[in-house]
Amino acid sequence: MAWFSPARRLTAAMPLLCLLLTPATGSAATDSPAPFVPQFDKDDRLTFPADYRDWVYVTTGIDMAYGPAMRMGHSMFDNVFVNREAYLAFKQTGTWPEKTTFVLEVRGAADKGSINKSGHFQTPEVMGLEVHVKDTARFHDDGWGFYSFDAGEAAPPPAEQLPVEQSCYSCHRDHGAVDTTFVQFYPTLRPIAEAKKTLSAAYLAEKP
């Protein structure tokens, strides 16, 4: 067996050290997705964030209605997702940063299928898609814009902002727990807002 002198051992080890210390550019271990930024086309229409199901899941509601109860004859699930950067910022501050984007995904509720004997489960078909974006430079009323997309499309085309006269704006503004959003219905985020004291005065006034 050949023994290296200390100097030769150090020299022999240098290539290995270089491999260990050099950033692995392009490798799966170091690559991370670019931060999400909502995209708008030349006509100021919002591009649908197709990868929203890779975001942070916030909550699910079933048959929720903020106005008079509607008799639809069937149940619906509302699934809410938010981009990861906004979620992490909320955990730190208790409020939403610029470019926060929510997706509301509506699915039908079924009760008969496989081994299910009671209760409801979600169906594969997406029946509604709505997006809520924070951009105070773009939306001058309260800093947020609403968009509705065609859920029947595999790749929904860009959508125009819903008119600010629609009730979704005033409802969120008057009743949203944090920054016009319904954090009161997000079970893992409401305690953060309570601890950070970022709950809105409007919500606290009507809180049971």
From TrEMBL:
It holds the Pfam family Cytochrome_P460. Gene3D superfamilies: Cytochrome P460. Residues 1-28 form the signal peptide. The keyword Signal applies. InterPro entries: Cytochrome_P460, Cytochrome_P460_sp. CDD domains: cyt_P460_Ne-like. Residues 49-182 form the Cytochrome P460 domain. Keywords: Signal. The keyword Signal applies. This is Cytochrome P460. It comes from Nitrospirillum amazonense.
